[in-house]
Amino acid sequence: MFKKFTLVFLFIFLGGECYSVLAQTGLESQHLADHKPLMNEVWKTFDTMLYKVNKKNGKTIYTPFFPSKLAKMDGMKVELQGYMVPLKTGLRHNRFLLSVLPVLQCMFCGQNGIPPMVEITLANNDKIWLKENPITLKGYVKLNEKDRTRVEIFIQDASIVK
Question: pTM for the whole thing?
Answer without folding.
Answer: 0.72
